[in-house]
Design brief:
single chain, 440 residues, alpha/beta, Urease, subunit C, domain 1, TIM Barrel, 2 domains, 14 helices, 30% helix, binds (4S)-2,6-dioxohexahydropyrimidine-4-carboxylic acid, metal ion binding, metal-binding
């Protein structure tokens, strides 16, 4: 039995599963959408939300985030990160295993699931990290969206840069393998070559396009060899996109981040190390090729790779500065602003940020506004523009690479499982999300 009221969202511009919009009402009951219609009569016990002039989209599912708990809570934790999600219209997230301890076995996964049940305002799932010696765990742990392999840009147990070990992991089991595709041996060699340079712009040359391409080619080769479900995380280069355009088996998917679409190497001159991430930002030409690949379906969906670090850490001198930037609070308005600028449609954005992710990871009943689906929804305002302001950010790191960008499509209300988790500029810290299931 639910202990919270039904919601009746009135006269929104509602995105339908076929990509069309109707102006109409959406009724939720318990955690489900129960009716979508031009005009719904409901009894007085429902909570009515006047959504005139607003657009209703399925809640965002962000399939790549680093929320730092346990072990690195000085950067972010599951409560602060999930508050940032609620504000950004992100109703579900898939989190990466490079926490402390690493998420490489069932007990570490159980610990994260327990922590999230206590602290997360939105729905959650956690990847299992591959090491050289946890194959049994990779085959058996549950629930998880898949196996994360760092082929590069990592140190310690999570780095797997030997083809023989990768081959062994690809050869056994059938669950999804998600790769961070960068060639560590090339990065190592180029790091030495450019060791005297402290301008962070060198980061994009050290971890260059060739390093990304080498690793993506290897992952594709192994996936092809075993017909293994492969997902390529944060695709960053035009050459990788061109490779996938020529050759992409049906069991392979790829994602791109808003920053690889919207930022490029020019950003180092304005925001310095805040632009440093892995894989690095590329050229304006790469931006264009990635956009085209996304629009053409070569790239399947969007992830933020939300990877917060403190401003103190980012203020060090390159290469001592950590790579990564936050993203969950700004991803939806960034993409909707791009849609309003004519780069794509609002319905494509909703597909890339919700439906296609649910399909890619087999997350049942999410990503569409239709009866029987989960009531994970976001109401956005596409009529007004507002800048990204540091002082309004909820992520613990307290900065964004997009500060000052004037964006539209900001969430006005976010609903998780039929409960309002964000409204009138405030999160409701009492709401808790649910563990996601996979393979549906
Ligand atoms: O820039 C990055 N930072 N890329 C990653 O893949 C990892 C991340 C982090 O955890 O900081």
């Amino acid at each position: 039995m639910s202990n919270y009221p039904s919601l009746l969202i009135r006269q929104a511009r509602v995105l339908l599963p076929n990509g069309d919009f109707i102006t109409g009402d959406v009724l939720t009951q318990n955690n489900k959408i129960v009716q979508v219609s031009s005009n719904i009569c409901a009894d007085t016990s429902v909570v009515e939300i006047d959504a005139q002039g607003l657009t209703l989209l399925p809640g965002v599912i962000d399939p790549q985030v680093h929320f730092r708990e346990p072990g690195l809570e000085y950067k972010e934790d599951l409560f602060t990160a999930s508050c940032a999600c609620a504000k950004g219209g992100v109703t579900s997230f898939l989190e990466m295993p490079n926490t402390k301890p690493l998420t490489t076995n069932q007990s570490a996964l159980d610990d994260k699931l327990h922590r999230a049940s206590q602290k997360s305002l939105v729905n959650y799932g956690f990847f299992i990290g591959a090491t050289a010696d946890n194959l049994t765990e990779l085959l058996t742990v549950n629930p998880t969206p898949g196996i994360k392999i760092f082929m590069g840009s990592m140190h310690g147990d999570l780095l797997i840069d030997e083809e023989a070990i990768l081959d062994r992991i690809f050869s056994q089991g059938s669950r999804l393998i998600a790769v961070h595709a960068e060639d560590q041996s090339r990065i190592r060699q180029r790091r030495q070559q450019f060791a005297d340079i402290h301008d962070p712009a060198i980061h994009s040359q050290i971890q260059d396009s060739q390093a990304a391409l080498n690793a993506t080619q290897l992952a594709l080769k192994l996936s092809q060899k075993y017909h293994r479900r492969l997902h390529i995380l944060h695709l960053s280069t035009g050459v990788e996109a061109q490779l996938l355009r020529q050759y992409k088996p049906s069991w392979v998917t790829a994602e791109v981040t808003p920053q690889h679409l919207l930022l490029n190497t020019e950003a180092y001159s304005t925001i310095g190390t805040l632009a440093q991430m892995n894989p690095p930002l590329r050229s304006p030409q790469d931006n264009q090729v990635l956009w085209r690949a996304l629009r053409d379906g070569v790239i399947d969906f969007i992830a933020t790779d939300h990877a917060p670090h403190t401003l103190e850490e980012k203020a060090q001198i390159y290469p001592n500065t950590p790579s990564g930037m936050p993203g969950v609070e700004t991803s939806l308005p960034l993409m909707l602003t791009a849609a309003m600028d004519g780069k794509c449609t609002v319905s494509q954005v909703a597909n890339w940020m919700s439906k296609a992710v649910a399909v890619g990871y087999g997350i049942p009943n999410k990503g569409e506004i239709t009866p029987g689906y989960d009531a994970d929804l976001v109401l956005v305002d596409l009529n007004n523009y507002k800048p990204v302001k540091r002082e309004e950010l909820l992520s613990k790191c307290g900065w964004s690479p997009f500060e000052g960008w004037n964006l539209t499509g900001w969430p006005v209300q976010t609903i998780v499982g039929g409960q309002i988790v964000y409204a009138q500029g405030k999160v409701n810290p009492q709401i808790r999300g649910q563990a996601l299931s996979f393979g549906g």
